[in-house]
Each structure stands twice: as structure tokens, then as C-alpha cells.
Design a protein that fits this description.
There is one protein chain. The chain is globular, with a radius of gyration of 25 Å. The chain has one domain. It has a two-stranded antiparallel ribbon. The longest helix is centred in the N-terminal third of the chain and has 35 residues. Helix content is 59%, strand content 2%. By secondary structure, the protein is mostly helical. It starts with a helix and ends with a helix. α9 runs antiparallel to α10. The chain contains 10 helices and 2 strands, in the order ααααααββαααα.
């Protein structure tokens, strides 16, 4: 063996050690960043004033929509749903949280376009609100050409312009109609979303359920044969996905209902419905209590371990019940 070969053998463990240390340091950095980026943003206070004295109807709802969307994009780690590089690509809890927030943002943006900003069904829609609402519906995982974040920022800019025009007395085109029928349209969407999330959370312990798709209507039909029993068991690998999607939806809805308290104060007072909104807010606040477990547990209903999905389902079901009650109050003359 010559001297060159011997030196090569002696150096090899040194390079292996250096590489191992570098990989270990990189993994620690990714772990720390992953934990930091997985923290949910705090709840912020809703504002209804342009300045200290000027209150504008619709400002609270529009401004809250903007701030919720901005928080989704600008929280630690930024927007992660379309990440292609570590550590974001390895995280799934935060992208699912963003999914829940984004769904509520899209629903409210659509109601602002179709109802809040229009006096009646045949009135002309606000073009800026229309374009902004459409920008929120780009694919949430679009990485490039265009990137989701760039389109969402266009949407935010459009709603900022609409918000500012609401406070401009010289601009008659921008309007926000805080009426009971408009509020009912948004509540109908919220009711469906909460009902779906509650059912999916409950499926963490259910294996099947009776098919009620055609119940209540003897003449109802479906395009395909309907089985008597439906398998609904949530996979153990996706229980945490549903849980964090629900947390994101609850976080966004909490802010939106606080805005409803302000913009629809006269409607709620007239219908004696303020207590229902307060109950919804209380349940949503309870659903966002700090999580003290490093993992989402999926114990059986009466088992030894907790079932975080069922706890979340309880709060959302109670909030949904209050939403249904609120819609009934608004339906009354």
C-alpha cells in the first residue's frame, strides 16, 4: 500500500464525522423552525373605526377579513401550504390550519361580493370586490405561475381599496348593506361548514353511520344507488389534519363573528339576537384553548386516553347550534 492510499483511508472518517455533524445541526435547525412555525397566531381585536370618532358600517367586517388573510400569509414561517422545501414541506398541521382559515375567508369574501355590497339581486356588483373575491380562489398549493401568496395579496389589496372607499363620503359606489337577509346568507354557509367539520371530527371514533341522504322527503331521488350504511371512519393518519383544519376555521370565525357584533349591531338588537352571537363567540373561544399535548390523541369515547377530535367537535357543534338559532331569530319578522 502506497502512502497516498494510506492517507486517504485516514482522512475518510474525518469527512464522515464532519458530514454527520452538519446533518445533525441542520436537523436541529429544521426541528426548531418546525415547532416555531407550527404555533397558531394569537387572536386580535376587531376594529370598527376609521379614526377615533368615525364609525362606518361594514368597516369591521371588511377590515377583519383583510387582517385574517394577512395573518395567514405573514405569520411565522409565512404561508406553508405550497412550500416545496424543508422544513415547510415536512409540516402538515399548519397547512391544514391554513386550509380552515382560507375556506372561511373565501366564504365571507363571496358573501361580501354577492350580498353585503349589493342592495338587491339585480343591482350591479362592485367590480373591485368581484376581482378581489376571485383572487382568493386560486389553488391553495400553487407554487409558481402564479404563486398562491401573490394572488391572495392581490385579493387583500382589492378589499383594502373597498374598505377605504366605504369610509369615503364622496364615493357612492362602495356600499355595505347590514341587513338581516344578508347576514342570513353568510350564516347559511357557516352552518354548513361547521356541520361538516363536526361530522368529520366525530368520525374519529365512528366506523359507519346510517345513510340519511334522502331522509325527510318521500319523493327524493339520487343519481346513484344509496347504501343503507356508510363507512365514515377517519384514518388514524388524518385525524390531526381534520383537527387543525377545524382549529383554523374556528380561529377565523371567531374574528368574523366579533365583526358581526359591530356591523350588525342594529339588526341584532332589533331581533333580540345579540345573546346568540355572544354564545357563538364563547364556544369558538373555548375551541381555541391551548393544546397541552405534543400529538393529537385519538382515544375511544370512553377509553383511557383523550380524544381531542371529540372535544373540538363538542365546541363546534354547540357553536353550530347557536348559529342555527341565530338564523331562526333573523327569519322572524
Amino acid at each position: 500500500m502506497n502512502e497516498k492510499s494510506a492517507a486517504s483511508i485516514l482522512k475518510r472518517p474525518t469527512w464522515l464525522w464532519i458530514t454527520s455533524v452538519a446533518v445533525a445541526i441542520l436537523m436541529v435547525i429544521y426541528l426548531v423552525l418546525g415547532i416555531y412555525w407550527s404555533r397558531s397566531p394569537d387572536v386580535f381585536w376587531v376594529n370598527q373605526n376609521i379614526d377615533d370618532s368615525n364609525v362606518v358600517v361594514g368597516y369591521a367586517t371588511t377590515d377583519t377579513l383583510i387582517r385574517v388573510a394577512e395573518t395567514m400569509l405573514e405569520k411565522p414561517g409565512g404561508y406553508l401550504s405550497n412550500d416545496r422545501f424543508p422544513p415547510g414541506v415536512f409540516l402538515d398541521n399548519t397547512p391544514n390550519w391554513e386550509k380552515g382559515v382560507l375556506q372561511q375567508v373565501r366564504d365571507l369574501a363571496r358573501v361580501i361580493r354577492n350580498d353585503y355590497s349589493r342592495s338587491q339581486s339585480q343591482s350591479i356588483e362592485d367590480e373591485e370586490v368581484r376581482d378581489a373575491e376571485q383572487a382568493f380562489f386560486i389553488d391553495s398549493d400553487s407554487w409558481i405561475f402564479p404563486a398562491s401568496e401573490s394572488e391572495y395579496r392581490k385579493a387583500i389589496k382589492g378589499f383594502k381599496d373597498y374598505r377605504d372607499r366605504l369610509g369615503d363620503d364622496a364615493d357612492d359606489d362602495a356600499q355595505f348593506y347590514a341587513r338581516a337577509d344578508n347576514l342570513r346568507e353568510w350564516l347559511a354557509q357557516v352552518e354548513k361548514r361547521l356541520g361538516s367539520l363536526t361530522g368529520r371530527l366525530g368520525d374519529s371514533v365512528s366506523s359507519d353511520r346510517i345513510n340519511e341522504s334522502l331522509a325527510g322527503d318521500s319523493a327524493a331521488e339520487a343519481s346513484n344507488p344509496q347504501p343503507d350504511m356508510i363507512e365514515v371512519q377517519t384514518s388514524w393518519f388524518t385525524v390531526d389534519d381534520v383537527f387543525f383544519e377545524s382549529r383554523g376555521a374556528a380561529w377565523a370565525l371567531l374574528h368574523f363573528f366579533r365583526a358581526v357584533e359591530l356591523d350588525f349591531a342594529a339588526v341584532l338588537e332589533d331581533k333580540n339576537a345579540r345573546a346568540s352571537v355572544r354564545q357563538i363567540i364563547r364556544e369558538l373561544e373555548s375551541s381555541l384553548q391551548p393544546l397541552h399535548s405534543p400529538v393529537i390523541l385519538n382515544g375511544s369515547g370512553y377509553g383511557f386516553f383523550a380524544n381531542h377530535s371529540l372535544v373540538m367537535a363538542n365546541y363546534l357543534a354547540r357553536a353550530n347550534s347557536a348559529v342555527i338559532n341565530l338564523r331562526e331569530l333573523l327569519d322572524e319578522g
